[in-house]
Amino acid sequence: MSSNNKTIWLAAALIILSLMLTGCLPETPPPACTTDFLIWSINQANNNGPGTDTINLDPGCVYQLAYVDNTVDGNNGLPSITTSIIINGNGATVRRSTQSQKAAIRLFHVSQGGELTLNDIRLYDGLGMEPPNVTLPLRNDGGAIFNAGVLTVNNSDLDYNRAHNRGGGIYNAGTMTINATTFQNNGVNIGGGPGESGGAIYNAGVATITGSTFVGNIASQSGGAILNGGIMTITNSTISANSTTLAEIVSGAAIMNGGNGTLHISYTTITSNVGTTSGAVWSVLDTIEIVNSIIAGNLPANCSYPATSPTSGPNLDDDGSCDNFTITADPQLDPLASNGGLTQTHAIAPSSPAKNAAAGACPAADQRGEPRPFGSACDLGAYELTGGGAPQSDPSELSGMVYNDINGDGVYTPGEPAFAGVEVVLGVGTCGMSTPSQTTLAASDGSYQFSIPAPNAGTYCLSIDPLVEPNTSILIPGGFTEPVGDVYQITLTEGQDMSDLFFGWMFQFGPNIGPANLEITNVVLSATTIPINDYVGVEVTVTNMGSAPASGYDLVIIPHYGWGPPNPGGYEAIPEVAPGANHTVVLSPGVLYGNLGAFTMRILVTDDWYALGDPDSTGTAGDYEDHPINVTKFACLQFDLEPIELVFLNLPGDTRILPLYVKFNGPVPEDLVEKFQAHLGEIESYRCGFQGFDDRVFCMNEIPEGEDGTEVPFRLTLAECPEFIYELPAVQIPVSQPVIQTCSADLNERECIAAGGDYQMINDTTSTCICP
């Protein structure tokens, strides 16, 4: 490659890594649009010899940094840049992973000798912070980027990055160029103490900033937006609504020029910044030069710098605090808005004293890219009035999506299902105190949109209440994974649009609701009536009825559901189950029962057992089945019986007694005999006894007249057992015969019984009829 210009495409369909200088082919890359791919690409570029490597990120991808890659000058999520690399973001985002939560991970580090150019990329939620016992200050600097080499950032956004010490967005100790980039909501106010300076940028090197906007950044001590301790030039830029917080400390809510810093500001608008004790632009030495700029509307004052500081051409303030300024008047600024170009600006009114007030040479275009001058001379500040003032403000459009965060990571992943019909509320004012102004229902693809008519600059709150219908039926039970705090509090400039306001929801008890629907489809128990200190074997089959893989589920057996806390008697993790697939769990020997009584065995499939560290889980978090279990003194179903024998016992008078004999193949405890009962249809026995010589149990049934010869079902029950222990579907009640003989000792067994005797064994070989 003669040009020494190499390219790495992070795209699903095209991967190019030109290594013509070495003649080697790269190793197989990880999948595109993954963090591993970005890390791999940087490592490839760092080790790829001389020349500049270009990495093209996939549009819309989010590269989440969950782990520390290296600890050069702090915890860095990506490999330190050691060679010349260009990263074309194409609108992609690099951010600290939501799974990191409290982990401090800086996004980029550029080493000495390294050169990094970032184009069209969003850097979000980087955190430069070390534990309290780490005393090296540099390791607490630079939330998104720490630059010790050469850094260029073009047409990008740095949002909500933080550092514990210096440079919430960028700490620069090398050479840095910033073009058409927005720094918003970055901060160094974690500890709220002295030393936390440079909310967006801390410059200790050489920095050039052009056509960029700093809004909503914060520092505890100094430089709400920028602290300069090196050499810095700012041109055609807007610094608005930044702040410092510590009282009794001179700060510079917009810019502090400290130490030996040298600062040149030209054609820049600095307004609406709020500090505590000093001007929004503050300098220790007279090494600050301000040219053709507007510094107005800041609190408690606009400027604090030595009167010997140079100025060139007219400048405008509105409180007289900026020494050597030639115009003190209201600049008539419109609210910060999207007035064209890549960054937001404050337009000036046609009657503004800043109009045509500049002197000397001016840039060829203003911050938006509009030609300068438009009129007899250039306008002061970053905005050139090119007609009748600021364009008519458009409605602000807010849009996003409500989705099922299956991964639970707080970031939408393509393929995660959408929620349709969820009500989203837009309120005016800060969250918790806002007044609802609009509501909308998420569309079939989960998307929602609000249009706020002009004027629309202000604070708004986007929220979803899961405890009102229709949301309850769709979402409960579960919780938000995105945004942090469950709501979006938004500060809009006039005409500003915001997208990607995603609400991620993860079901707390996933098996019953949502795309992964794990249901119990078959249960086999070894028994439902067992003797005490015995086991019930359990076999459970579950099926994923949903459309997404079901993972993280457990099978839980609660032996005594309803008797105190539902502590598990059986517990087994279920592996991931694909949509439509089955999985069977066998617990053997099963669940042990050591108490007598009737119990409910609950079989539960859940992803929430002990999930919150609560040993008293409700036992209802998922699909479940209940099965009755009876625990007795003995095994009711283990009796081995022979068929009954029916012979009428005819006694004098009207009483007709029919003894029923049942022989057990094995011993029967004598204390149980009286607990037996025989049932001939609806006729119940009134007494059961034990005929010991042949292990027979006999039960006496009084047969009413008219039942002779009929067929009835027969059941033998035992008081300790919940169901019958022996059954015949039909037996015939014999026909009674008159007594034809008297009882005598020489009768056979049948004759003896018919005569009212008791046929017994006298010894091993002799039987006799014992008469009443």
Task: Characterize the structure shown.
The radius of gyration is 43 Å and the shape is elongated. It folds into 4 domains: about 5-330, Pectate Lyase C-like, CATH 2.160.20; about 395-505, Immunoglobulins (Immunoglobulin-like, Sandwich); about 520-635, Immunoglobulins (Immunoglobulin-like, Sandwich), CATH 2.60.40; about 640-740, Immunoglobulin-like, CATH 2.60.40. The protein is built from 4 helices and 62 strands. The relative contact order is 0.04. By secondary structure, the protein is mainly beta. About 5% of the residues lie in helices and about 40% in strands. It has an 11-stranded parallel β-sheet, with helices on one face. An 11-stranded parallel β-sheet has the order 3-5-8-12-16-20-24-28-31-34-35, with no helix packed on it. An 8-stranded parallel β-sheet has the order 6-10-14-18-22-26-29-32, with no helix packed on it.
In a few lines, what is going on in this structure?
The protein contains 4 helices and 62 strands. The protein is mainly beta.
Q: What structural keywords apply?
A:
single chain, 772 residues, mainly beta, Pectate Lyase C-like, Immunoglobulin-like, eleven-stranded parallel sheet, 4 helices, 62 strands, elongated, disordered N terminus
